[in-house]
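user: can you give me the structure for this one chain? tokens are fine.
assistant: on it. calling the predictor now.
[tool input]
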Amino acid sequence: MNQSGLDAMTVLKVLLAVAAIVVGFVILGAFVRILGRLIWFSVGVLVLAVLALLALRLLRDLL
């Protein structure tokens, strides 16, 4: 058997590890993007609720 320094299984293991890292980063990026959108949505809802309460208080003062 001819050994040339790098075994075929070693190369396959390295390629599999690299593919796993790439897939992990893609999944992590998608998760962070979804989490960021949820956070901004929550901030928007909170701002709208505060503005609605402020408008309600101003309307009570006027009436």
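assistant: here you go. The longest helix spans residues 8-62. Helices lie at 8-62.
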